[in-house]
Amino acid sequence: MKKLNNSDFELIQNIIENIDFNYETTQQQAKEELFKSWEEIIGSKISKFSKLFEISADNVLTVICRDSFIANELYYEKEKIFSLINKKAEKLGIKLKDIRFDYRKWKEHNL
Fold it and tell me: Could you tell me if 65 and 74 are in contact, meaning their C-beta atoms sit under 8 angstroms apart?
């Protein structure tokens, strides 16, 4: 295909030849891997009643819980849980500032 006269357009073949395809793990894939590791981090008993839900724009991880009792129990172990989850997150290139436990969203999402 011929380049048009008096234009700044590039041929698609030239653009494609210069693209560097980078297949490194994306941020979304890293989050999915972190979320899948919840049972490994927290244990099978508690993971039945809790789930990693989201990481907010300000890097706060939300864990949703079946009820307030589970949320409170996890809150008492917040520092230990955050330390464990943060180690995994850092390996995946995710920076977390804090962790919070929410039981209301569990019901909202019918889990």
Answer: yes
